[in-house]
């Protein structure tokens, strides 16, 4: 799969995935003879799991903020 195909499957932009790779949050994929990123199902699974951890972290942060506001 290409970076665009992976991005469409997990509902983010290709730039987001490239940024996660650059910052070391997800591993860099293999490249084909043209230098294009190529992803397999295992790569997709790991990127999707990483995205889900971000969503959970954001939900917990917003819940803590809401709790702090109501109990201030």
Description:
The chain is mainly alpha-helical and 72 residues long. It has a single domain (3-70), classed as Multidrug-efflux Transporter Regulator, Chain: A, Domain 2 (Orthogonal Bundle). It has helices spanning 3-10, 14-22, 41-70, and strands spanning 30-31, 37-38. A two-stranded antiparallel ribbon has the order 1-2. Helix 1 (3-10) packs across helix 2. The protein is elongated.
Topology:
Layout: H1 3-10, H2 14-22, E1 30-31, E2 37-38, H3 41-70
Antiparallel strand pairs: 1-2
Which features characterize this protein?
Multidrug-efflux Transporter Regulator, Chain: A, Domain 2; 2 strands; 72 residues; 65% helix; two-stranded antiparallel sheet
Q: Order of strands in the sheet with the most strands?
A: 1-2
Q: Write the CATH fold name.
A: Multidrug-efflux Transporter Regulator, Chain: A, Domain 2
Shape: elongated
| SSE class | mainly alpha
CATH architecture heading = Orthogonal Bundle
Question: How many domains make up the 3D coordinates?
Answer: 1
Fraction in beta strands: 5-15%
The description of the largest β-sheet is: 2 strands, antiparallel
Q: Please give the CATH class.
A: Mainly Alpha
The first-to-last residue Cα distance is 49 Å
What is the overall pLDDT average?
A: 86
Query: What integer value in Å does the Rg equal?
Result: 16 Å
Number of helices: 3
Low-confidence stretches: none
Question: What's the count of strands?
Answer: 2
The helix/strand series, from N terminus to C terminus, equals HHEEH
Helicity level, as a percent range? 55-70%
């Amino acid at each position: 799969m290409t970076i665009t195909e992976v991005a469409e499957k997990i509902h983010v932009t290709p730039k987001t995935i490239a940024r996660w790779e650059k910052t070391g949050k997800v591993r860099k994929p293999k490249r084909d003879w043209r230098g294009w990123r190529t992803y397999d199902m295992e790569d997709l699974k790991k990127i999707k799991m990483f995205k889900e951890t971000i969503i959970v972290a954001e939900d917990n942060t917003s819940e803590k903020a809401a709790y702090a506001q109501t109990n201030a």
